[in-house]
C-alpha cells in the first residue's frame, strides 16, 4: 500500500501502462543477461578467476552471509557499476530499481543459505534455487550452474547446466548431489 503511494501517488492514478510493464520486463532481461555473462566470464578468463572471483569460492559450503563475500574489485565493477549501468541503460524508474535490486539481494542471500526450507517461495518460482547454486559451489560443479539470481535458461543454452537431485540425509535436511549420466 505504501509502495503504491510512493510510486504512483494514489490508488486512482493510472501510472503504470501496459507498454511500461513490457519495457520494464525487457529491462530486467537485459540486467539478468549482463549479470550472467559477467559472472561466467570470470570462469572463462583464468586471470579474473584466480585473482578476483576465487575469493567468493573460498567458501566451499555457501552460507547466507557469504552471498556477497567477494573481492572488492568485483564488488565495485560488477555489483556497483554493473547495477548502476543496468539501471541507467534500462530506463526503469528509481522505485522499480530499488524494489528489483532489493529482491535480487534477498534472492542471492537465499541461494547461498544452503537451506532447503519448506514453503520457500523462491523454490516454487525459480529453478535456480539453493540446491542449484550449491552445485555451483561444489568442486565438480564450479564451471556449471552460473545463472544466479533468477533464471537458469542461459545455463541450458550455453551448456553450463549441471543436473542434480536432492538426497534426504538421515540426520535431517537435504544435500544437493550431482546426477550421474
Short description:
This protein is mostly helical and 181 residues long. The chain contains 8 helices and 2 strands.
The helix/strand class is: mainly alpha
Terminus-to-terminus distance:
50 Å
Rg from alpha-carbon coordinates: 18 Å
Q: What number of structural domains do the residues give?
A: 1
* Strand proportion: 5-15%
Shape: globular
Helix content: 40-55%
Helix and strand layout, with pairings?
Layout: H1 2-8, H2 18-44, H3 46-51, H4 72-90, H5 94-111, H6 121-125, H7 130-137, H8 153-158, E1 164-168, E2 174-178
Antiparallel strand pairs: 1-2
Helix pairs in contact: 2-4
Protein described:
Residues 38-160 form the Fatty acid hydroxylase domain. By secondary structure, the chain is mainly α. The chain has eight helices and two strands. It has a two-stranded antiparallel ribbon. α2 runs antiparallel to α4 (72-90). The radius of gyration is 18 Å and the shape is globular. The model is unreliable at 1-14 (pLDDT under 50).
Main attributes?
181 residues; Sterol_Desaturase_Related; oxidoreductase activity; mainly alpha; membrane; iron ion binding
Amino acid at each position: 500500500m505504501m509502495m503504491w503511494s510512493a510510486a504512483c501517488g494514489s490508488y486512482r492514478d493510472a501510472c503504470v501502462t501496459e507498454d511500461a510493464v513490457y519495457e520494464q520486463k525487457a529491462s530486467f532481461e537485459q540486467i539478468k543477461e549482463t549479470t550472467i555473462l559477467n559472472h561466467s566470464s570470470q570462469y572463462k578468463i583464468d586471470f579474473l578467476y584466480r585473482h578476483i572471483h576465487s575469493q567468493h569460492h573460498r567458501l566451499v559450503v555457501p552460507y547466507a552471509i557469504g552471498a556477497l563475500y567477494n573481492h572488492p574489485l568485483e564488488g565495485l565493477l560488477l555489483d556497483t557499476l554493473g547495477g548502476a549501468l543496468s539501471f541507467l541503460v534500462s530506463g526503469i524508474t528509481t522505485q522499480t530499481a530499488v524494489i528489483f535490486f532489493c529482491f535480487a539481494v534477498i534472492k542471492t542471500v537465499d541461494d547461498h543459505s544452503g537451506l532447503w526450507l519448506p514453503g520457500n517461495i523462491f523454490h516454487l518460482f525459480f529453478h535456480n534455487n539453493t540446491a542449484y547454486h550449491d552445485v555451483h559451489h561444489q568442486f565438480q560443479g564450479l564451471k556449471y550452474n552460473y545463472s544466479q539470481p533468477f533464471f537458469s535458461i542461459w545455463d541450458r543454452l550455453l551448456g553450463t547446466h549441471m543436473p542434480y537431485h536432492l538426497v534426504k540425509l538421515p540426520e535431517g535436511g537435504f544435500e544437493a548431489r550431482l546426477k550421474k549420466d
